[in-house]
């Protein structure tokens, strides 16, 4: 009886695997819905980016804010943020827009610091499963659809209206980081942004074409690129 039951369970599991397969992709899921094999090239690429486990430390005049970055959700925009940070683009940049209990925004190096500055190029939106469902979300500021550049903001509360309007690239790690964010006031500064993770120095190798274009555009604005990056 036990042997028969065991055989029936094996047979049922085999049927389960077959039923989860999709024609062409050989897609198979585990019991929890995670793909086991048959990844597309895009999925393999995003999984590779996720393995870097990127974090950023945003050093400000009010203290440090630690951030998880999500290249698996917004690969190009996270790469852009990492590229700019590694080239010291955010060093000594003002928080030019602060709405207490809503957002703090920085990343404009233009002479006016009025929110109109760009790094010399604009990037498309990248929306994902991430939502503005909590305070401490790090996202790209924009002037409309597909106008992401260098400006970033951090939310201080849940803001559902921002969903599918602004691309999320990360979130603050803990309550201490959110406390620092809530202390920021107009004209406080980002002192520096440090990128951390596994094999961080190789992350931008996944975006060679993009970084070449960004470097050329950034140089055209007069910004001095760190050539060793």
**Main sheet overview:** 8 strands, antiparallel, barrel
Strand order of the largest sheet: 3-4-9-7-8-6-5-10
Percent helix, as a range, is 25-40%
pLDDT averaged residue by residue: 87
Order of helices and strands: HEEHEEHEEEEEHEH
Instruction: Give the number of DSSP strands.
Output: 10
Global geometry:
globular
Class per helix and strand makeup: alpha+beta
**N→C terminal distance:** 67 Å
Strand percentage lies at 15-25%
Uncertain runs are 13-33
The number of helical elements comes to 5
Q: What topology emerges from the helices and strands here?
A:
Blueprint: H1 2-19, E1 28-29, E2 35-37, H2 41-50, E3 55-60, E4 63-69, H3 75-86, E5 93-99, E6 103-106, E7 137-140, E8 152-155, E9 168-172, H4 175-183, E10 189-196, H5 208-220
Antiparallel strand pairs: 1-2, 3-4, 3-10, 4-9, 5-6, 5-10, 6-8, 7-8, 7-9
